[in-house]
Amino acid sequence: MEKKIHVNDLGTIILRTIPRATRFTLKISKGTITATMPVGGDEGRTLAFIEENREKLLAALEKHPARPLLDESTVLQATTFRLEIFRTDRDNYYMTLKDGLLRIACPSDTRFESEKVQQILKELLEKALRHEAKRLLPDRLMALAARHRFTCTGVRIMNSKTRWGSCSSRKSINLSLSLMLLPWHLVDYVLLHELCHTIEMNHSDRFWALLNSLTDNKALALRKELKSYRMF
Asked: What share of the chain is helix, strand, coil (3-state, %, to 5)?
């Protein structure tokens, strides 16, 4: 069972009852707090638990704010295109990607605050990011592999929400389509990072020494810069 409430300063909170839950818990994801309670749990106790943790929740929300709505005011510069969202007299959504501009058209009566509308826009943006990732990233990865004499057995584009990339023990590399939100120098940093894992399957000193040798000794600085970007 699920219910949404609004709490001053904390925003919308999802109250969720889970049969297997044994205690009250709080979780924050993309700026939204989810409070979980066991079956038969008291909503009043849950709200009291939230108040007891208010300061911690406020601090966490500051670190993990909600994503802004996608709407006509959105400014987004991806790796290969700029996003423009606009209204049109047509009664359906459609998009075009041409000359570095992704245009998403919305019906004139679109309510951008609607969760359904946000889901539609996210799916269209994801489609564009996936298209660009598949078009560009495999060849770019293989070119870097050849240049630096790495062996990569395959590459796949995924919609990972937690990792920019990963490398298997068989030297196959997965890349997140979210890479297409980064500037090219950070894209290449991630690609080289995963290629280094084809030799060093950990983050040992040898791994960082190898990655440093390929990035003009800027591996840690690039890693820090990457942390300032959010995945799609």
From this structure: 40, 25, 35
SS3 at position 169:
coil
Specify whether the CB–CB gap between 175 and 157 falls below 8 A. yes
Q: Distance (Å, rounded) from C-alpha 61 to C-alpha 65?
A: 5
Residues 7, 229: Cα–Cα separation, whole Å: 28
The separation between the first and the last C-alpha atoms of the chain, rounded to the nearest angstrom, is 28
Q: What is the pTM of this model?
A: 0.79
Q: Is the separation of the CB atoms in 227 and 190 below 8 Å?
A: no
Residue 60 has pLDDT above 90, yes or no: no
CA dist 130 → 36, 66, 135 (Å) = 34, 23, 8
173 three-state secondary structure: strand
